[in-house]
Design goal:
Mean pLDDT: 94
Strand content: under 5%
Largest sheet: none
Low-confidence stretches: none
Distance between the termini: 8 Å
Structural class: mainly alpha
Number of strands: 0
Shape: flat
Length: 152
């Protein structure tokens, strides 16, 4: 199985666990004298089985991420950490730009006037640069994901 396929399977297992959680919650309590449409104990056993499969898959994915590199030579783990950091910085800068877009709240010349203390165009350039770097890194990570063979 390729790493990219394992990532898709991981997503499917997460969705399945979320669905089982909802079902377990739904049938964990019923009116006195009623029987649940599904036995919660059966659902719990299914949750346990899928959680074990999920754990093995996560271990294999993490091991592959540590042992394989993208074209630039850094491991997938390093690339993912770098991408997360770039995304965080991108989100922060976007929020700062949005905070500077305050509508004027002045009704007269004696009221407080808000002024920006940063260069919005310069910050926007940084945002654009980060977005490009994130896109390129995502492409490299995805490419590696379809090349790396996973040991499950």
């Amino acid at each position: 199985m390729k790493l990219a396929e394992a990532l898709l399977l991981r997503s499917d297992l997460q969705k399945k666990l979320a669905s089982l959680q909802v079902r377990a919650q739904r049938y964990a309590i019923v009116q006195e004298g009623e029987k649940p449409a599904e036995d919660p104990q059966v659902i719990f056993r299914e949750i346990d089985a899928i959680a074990q499969q999920f754990e093995r898959l996560i271990y294999a994915i993490n091991r592959a991420n540590l042992q394989n590199a993208i074209k630039s030579g850094i491991t997938l783990t390093e690339a993912l950490a770098h991408r997360d950091t770039l995304t965080l910085r991108h989100r922060i800068l976007i929020s700062v730009i949005e905070a500077c877009n305050k509508p004027p709240e002045r009704y007269g010349v004696k009221e407080i006037r808000w002024v920006t203390t940063i260069s919005i165009p310069a910050i926007q350039q940084q945002v654009d640069g980060l977005a490009k770097e994130i896109r390129e890194l995502n492409a490299a990570i995805q490419e590696a994901g379809w090349q790396v063979e996973l040991e499950v």
